[in-house]
Amino acid sequence: MIVDVTEKDFDATVAKGVVLVDFWATWCGPCRMQGAILEQKVAPAKPDLTIAKVDIDGNVALAQKFGIMSIPALRIFKDGNLVASFDGVTKPEEIIAAVEQA
Amino acid sequence: MEDLVIVGSGPAGLAAAIYAARAGLRPLVVEGMLAGGQLTQTHEVENYPGFADPIVGLDLMTAMRAQAERAGARFEMDEISSVDFSGDDRKLVGMMGEMSSRAVIVATGAGAKWTDLPGEAKYKNHGISACAVCDGAFFRGRDVAVIGGGDTALGDALYLSRIAKSVTVIHRRDAFRGAKALSDRVLAAPNVTVAWNTTVKSFDGDGSSLTGLSLSDGRTLPVSGAFVAIGHRPQTDFLRGAVELDEAGYVVVDRTRTSAKGVFAAGDCADPLYKQAVIAAGAGAQAAIEAQRYLQEGG
Known about the structure:
The structure holds two protein chains of two kinds. Chain A is α/β, with parallel strands linked by helices. Chain A has four helices and five strands, in the order E-H-E-H-E-H-E-E-H. In chain A, strand 2, helix 2 (29-45) and strand 3 (50-55) form a beta-alpha-beta unit. The two termini of chain A are 17 Å apart. Chain B is of the alpha/beta class. In chain B, 25% of the residues lie in helices and 26% in strands.
């Protein structure tokens, strides 16, 4: 399941279970490749996984809170805690392996 | 089996797609890691004919893609990692899947060169970036540096000067190589300073992010962001062994034809000299015409 989240509902979204957060922006070219990987490869392989997309336009503070200084960036949360980080476009198999380990 | 696969979606790939689609070839464009190409990372484009006012690079490429799509081109979001051009069909393998095609146009462009200096790998994406337009927003009100002196460096410095508190341009020569129109504006910007005849020795940080640069004049420049703009290298590693490349990695072409049958190349991946969007677009059109002739002749 892919959902859009903002600063308002971020904490509630990542509070329970494993959640993959994708920090992106409309003007970021490589973010489109990352988005396609999540939609076409990760989501079908992990139908129960919540994939939360954060558009950094308007949510820069949230990105900075997790030390993000470049996008695309992925963060994996388990029960609200950060357990894995990827910066730059990340391959589907790496993401799936990290989700399974979380 | 496709008739024509175009690898890359910058000006070369999209111009090729427009021409090929209008010729009735229904080309498949594999967009690549950076959909829209390098221009999507250029804030304002001032030298592409047809736009009296500067156009935002991403807007130009969005319009070009829409034009190609309207002409009948199809798009797939994938990054090709290996090819096999030895058989009758040209095979391409990507991150998302495989495809085969009668003809291929390679328009994979060029990617940023890195300095390979100490600290760069550690702080890449943690203060070090090669894309001011992508990552500039994270440095609002901070001190940043731009490394380089060509058009990319100057464009980045100008863009960052509107976001960051200060911009220091570190350039190894005593004059910029970029366009005069840009360099005049950089030199006039109140919060931009230039360190001439200076190079970076290392990128320094606190273990998690960049805090400064050690410079060749012995200074430590405290910055939270450093933008590397020292040039580009052709993105042709995936072609090694399949088509002839020159020493620098550019695809060797004769009127866009490569050493492999049915494989054409256009744009910055095959252009060691000019590296301009308008030239890439022209070469893309040329490659599409060549590919169409090749297919017509039953290739």
